[in-house]
Amino acid sequence: MADDSSSRKRKVRGTKIRTDRAQKSGRKAEKELRRKAAASERNGDTPLSAPEEVAPEPFVETDEIDSIRNRIQGWLEAEQPVHLIGPTGCGKTSLALSAAAERGRPVVWLNGDEAVDTAALVGAHAGGERYEERDQFVGGVDKRTQIVRERWVDNPLSVAVREGATLVYNEFSRSDPAAHNVLLSLFEEGVLERPGKRGDDRTIDVHPEFRAILTSNDIEYAGVHQQQDALLDRVVGVHIDYYDAETEREIVDAHVELPSDQIDEVVSTTQQLRDELDIVVGTRAAITTAKGLSVFNTSDNGIADELLADVFTDVLAPKVSGGREGDDVTELKDRISETV
Ligand SMILES: Nc1ncnc2c1ncn2[C@@H]1O[C@H](COP(=O)(O)OP(=O)(O)OP(=O)(O)O)[C@@H](O)[C@H]1O
Would you tell me how many other CB atoms lie within 10 Å of the CB of residue 114? Predict the structure, then answer.
C-alpha cells in the first residue's frame, strides 16, 4: 500500500454522519418538513421550502485509494470485467461504486445471494396479460376471443447491458455459480442470452459502454461459492486488503465527528486487534466504534481504557459465537482489554 503520508492528498466527498442527538432530531424535523412540502404541493398551497437533499456517504480519496481506483478504471477502459477481492469491510463496495460513478454512466447495483438464479439476473415472464376481443360483426353472433400475452420483465443484468451501464455486482460469489453461465457469453462474445425469450428477443447485443465490477470476499468466507474457472478466466482480479493507518484514519474521520486524538486511538487499536484476533476487524468496525464513543464518551480527557474495551467488545461480539453472552465473548473482552 502507499507509504509516503507526506505526499498524501486528501479529498472527502459527501458529509460526516452527524452523531449528536440534537442533530438526529433535526433529521426527524427535516423528514416532517419534506412530508409537509409534498402535501402542500399536492394541495396547490404555497410551497414550503423543502430541506436540502441528504448528502451521500462520504468518500475519502488518498493516494492509496486513488492508485487502486485508477487500476480499476484502467481495466474498465480496457473493456475488462473487474473482480474486486478482499476481506470483509476493507472498502471493496465503496471503491467499486466510486470507480463506477467516475465513468459518468448509469450504475446498476446487484447483490449476490443464494437465491439469485439466471432469471433473477436476466429477467423472466411475469405472468400473462389477458385481453378479450369481441366480434359482433354478424347480427346475433357474439364472438369473444381471449388473448393472453406473456409479459416479460427485464432484470438488472439485462437493463445494464442494454443501457450501457456499469454493473456493480456486490458479493457476487454468494450466488450459485450456475446462475453465472450467462456471464460467460456476455463477457466473451458480447452477447447476453435471455433463456425464456424466443426468436430475435432471445439475445441482447451488449451496449459498447457496458462494464462490470464484481466484488467478493476471499473464497474461505462462509456462504460464498467457488465460482467456475471459465468465469474467473474472463475477469481480471484486483486484490485489496485493509488500508494503512493513515488512510483508515481519514476514513473514520470522514464518517464520525470525534477529536482527532481519539480517532487515532480507535484506528491504532483496530489495526492491533486485526493482527491479534482471529476474527475480521474491518474498517466498518473502526467507524462503528468511533460512532459509539461519540455517544458514550463524555470525558474531556481522552478515552478510558475500560470504555474503549467495552465499545470494541460490543462491536466485535457478533463475530464470536453469534454474539451470545458466553465464554467466547468473555474471552474476546479479555483479549481486547489486553490490547487497549
Ligand atoms: N474511501 C472511503 N471513503 C469513505 N468511507 C469508506 C471508504 N472506503 C470504505 N469506507 C467505509 O468503510 C466501511 C466498509 O467499506 P465497504 O462496505 O466498502 O467494505 P466492503 O469490503 O465492501 O465490505 P463487505 O465485505 O462487508 O461488503 C463502510 O462504512 C464504508 O462507508
Answer: 11
| Residue spans of alpha helices (H) in the chain | 21-43, 63-77, 92-102, 118-122, 156-163, 181-188, 229-232, 245-255, 260-276, 283-296, 305-316, 327-339
Q: What is the grid cell recorded at 316?
A: 466485535
Please report which confidence band the pLDDT of residue 48 belongs to, taking 50, 70 and 90 as the band edges. very low
The answer, yes or no, to whether any atom of ligand 1 lies below 6 A from the CB of 225, is no
Give the whole-angstrom CA distance, residue 288 versus residue 312.
Answer: 9
What is this model's ipTM? 0.98
The CA-based angle 61-62-68, given to 5 degrees, is 85
The reply to whether ligand 1 has any atom less than 6 angstroms from the CB of 86 is yes
What's the 149 CA to ligand 1 centre distance in angstroms?
45
Q: Say if residue 248's pLDDT is above 90.
A: yes
Using the structure block, give the residue that is written with the C-alpha cell 481519539. 262
User: Is the beta carbon of 10 within 6 A of some atom in ligand 1?
Assistant: no
Ligand 1 centre to CA of 92 (Å) is 6
pTM score: 0.78
- Residue among 93, 113, 168 whose CB has most ligand 1 atoms within 8 A, to mutate: 93
In this prediction, residue 263 carries a pLDDT of 96
User: What CA–CA distance (Å, rounded) separates 231 from 96?
Assistant: 19
Distances (CA, A) of 21 to 24, 128, 258, 295, 310: 5, 51, 14, 9, 21
Q: Which atom, in ligand 1's list, is nearest to the CA of 89?
A: 23
Verify whether ligand 1 is closer than 6 Å to residue 254 (CB atom): yes
* Per-chain mean pLDDT for the chain: 83
Distance of CA 209 to the CA centre of its chain: 22
pLDDT above 70 covers a percentage of the chain that reads: 80
Cell of 257: 465527528
pLDDT digits (tens, 9 = 90+) for 231-246: 989 999 999 999 999 9
Cα-to-centroid distance, 203 and ligand 1 (Å)? 36
